[in-house]
């Protein structure tokens, strides 16, 4: 029996009309690049990528932020991300250490939990 080969993308939800706030957070603050969604999909929502990482935000009419479930994004310089987030007024939360990583949590503009991790 074969097993999955990897993760193609992670999708988070956002409320209707949140595309500009998503772009400001994921492109301007986190440094990801917005990519066009396929034309046969809804125009609502937006997709971002950075290298092999793809993160999609889809509109959910009954939106509730993901407060526990979250993507963990690997970064090269966690201190830089912490400073950038703090300067923008974003939440930065420390958490229990995990061997081999420095890490923290933040939230996107909709309250979705995002973990940032740097390998030691």
UniProtKB/TrEMBL annotation:
Gene3D superfamilies: 2,3-Dihydroxybiphenyl 1,2-Dioxygenase, domain 1. Pfam families: Glyoxalase. Residues 6-119 form the VOC domain. PANTHER family: FAMILY PROTEIN, PUTATIVE (AFU_ORTHOLOGUE AFUA_3G15060)-RELATED. This is Catechol 2,3-dioxygenase-like lactoylglutathione lyase family enzyme.
């Amino acid at each position: 029996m074969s097993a999955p080969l990897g993760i193609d993308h992670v999708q988070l939800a956002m409320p209707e009309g949140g595309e500009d706030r998503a772009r400001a957070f994921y492109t301007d603050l986190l440094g990801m690049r917005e990519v066009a969604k396929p034309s046969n999909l809804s125009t609502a929502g937006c997709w971002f990528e950075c290298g092999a990482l793809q993160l999609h935000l889809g509109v959910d009419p009954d939106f509730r932020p993901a407060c526990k479930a979250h993507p963990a994004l690997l970064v090269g310089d966690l201190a830089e991300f912490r400073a950038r987030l703090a300067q923008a007024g974003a939440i930065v939360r420390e958490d229990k250490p995990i061997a081999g990583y420095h890490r923290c949590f933040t939230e996107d503009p909709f309250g979705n939990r995002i973990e940032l991790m740097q390998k030691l």
